[in-house]
């Protein structure tokens, strides 16, 4: 099974609303990263949160990490049509930081 | 300026052929990666390469082999292509191999095996 699994699989909201996506993982991690993928493009790094951090902000993005529940959430506030993309969480699969595992992603559609 | 580039963008070929996908990064990064994204959008790491050290995902068939002529390039060679190899392949790089460094992804190569 996937180390990181996002939920929901798909999310459709109106422009201006907030979007929340969740990621669950199974083993201990050092860090967790969130990436965005626009259709037909490569992934773009959004934010990294370390295992000793609980919350991190970057612009309209807010990421939380609960290591006791092995879960993270990505909140996008005041969504825009340009936020339409797939969002992935990535966790490390070993201690060397060279074997990353991505979840299946959440497809976010922001309707104008 | 393109940070991580891949060629070709699209590759259509017959089963049994041998093909290569090229990847170049101009970021001065030490570590490069290859990922496979299947039709369900699952992204799986295939290889990571850092300072001549290759780490292979054990699930990757040995028909796949990465070749690094220099630090800025990590090409992917695929022998005896099979239908199941059809996917989008992404190259990525990071400053070094330690966890905590963001990865920069190329635009992807869509491989279709007929």
Structure summary:
Chain A is mainly beta. Chain A is built from no helices and eleven strands. Chain A is 0% helix and 57% strand.
The total strand number of chain A stands at 11
Mean pLDDT of chain A: 88
End-to-end Cα distance of chain B, whole Å, is: 34 Å
Mean pLDDT of chain B: 90
Summarize the main sheet of chain B: 7 strands, mixed
Structural class of chain B: mainly beta
Distance between the termini of chain A: 36 Å
Shape of chain A: globular
* Rg of Cα set of chain A: 13 Å
Task: Give the biggest sheet of chain A.
Answer: 6 strands, mixed
The tally of strands of chain B reads: 11
Question: Hey, roughly how much beta strand do the residues of chain B contain?
Answer: over 45%
Rg over alpha carbons of chain B: 13 Å
Considering DSSP H and I runs of 4 or more, what fraction of the residues of chain B is helical? Answer: under 10%
Which residue ranges of chain A are poorly predicted, with pLDDT under 50 across at least 5 consecutive positions?
none
Give the fraction of residues assigned to helices of chain A: under 10%
Annotation field: number of helices of chain A: 0
From N to C, what is the helix and strand string of chain B?
EEEEEEEEEEE
**Backbone shape of chain B:** globular
Oligomer: heterodimer
Task: Provide the fold topology.
The complex is a heterodimer of chains A (112) and B (114).
Chain A: E1 4-7, E2 10-14, E3 19-25, E4 31-37, E5 43-50, E6 55-58, E7 61-66, E8 71-76, E9 85-92, E10 100-102, E11 106-111
Parallel strand pairs in A: 2-11
Antiparallel strand pairs in A: 1-3, 3-8, 4-5, 4-9, 6-7, 7-8, 9-10, 9-11
Chain B: E1 4-7, E2 10-13, E3 19-25, E4 31-37, E5 43-50, E6 53-56, E7 64-67, E8 75-78, E9 87-94, E10 104-105, E11 109-113
Parallel strand pairs in B: 2-11
Antiparallel strand pairs in B: 1-3, 3-8, 4-5, 4-9, 5-6, 7-8, 9-10, 9-11
């Amino acid at each position: 099974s996937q180390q990181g699994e996002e939920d929901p699989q798909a999310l459709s909201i109106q422009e201006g609303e907030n979007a929340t996506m969740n990621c669950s993982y199974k083993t201990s991690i050092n860090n967790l990263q969130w990436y965005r993928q626009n259709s037909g493009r490569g992934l773009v790094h959004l934010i990294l949160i370390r295992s000793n951090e609980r919350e991190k902000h970057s612009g309209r993005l807010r990421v939380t990490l609960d290591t006791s529940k092995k879960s993270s959430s990505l909140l996008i506030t005041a969504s825009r049509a340009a936020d339409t993309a797939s969002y992935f969480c990535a966790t490390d699969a070993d201690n060397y930081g060279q074997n990353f595992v991505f979840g299946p992603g959440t497809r976010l559609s922001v309707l104008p | 300026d393109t940070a991580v580039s891949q060629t070709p963008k699209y590759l259509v070929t017959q089963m049994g052929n041998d093909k290569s996908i090229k990847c170049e990064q101009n970021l001065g990064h030490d570590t490069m990666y290859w990922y496979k994204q299947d039709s369900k959008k699952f992204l799986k790491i295939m290889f990571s390469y850092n300072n001549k050290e290759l780490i292979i995902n054990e699930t990757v068939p040995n028909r796949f082999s990465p070749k690094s002529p220099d630090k800025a390039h990590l090409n992917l060679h695929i022998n005896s292509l099979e239908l199941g190899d059809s996917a989008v392949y992404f190259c990525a790089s990071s400053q070094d191999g330690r966890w905590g460094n963001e990865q920069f992804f190329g635009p992807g190569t869509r491989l279709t095996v007929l």
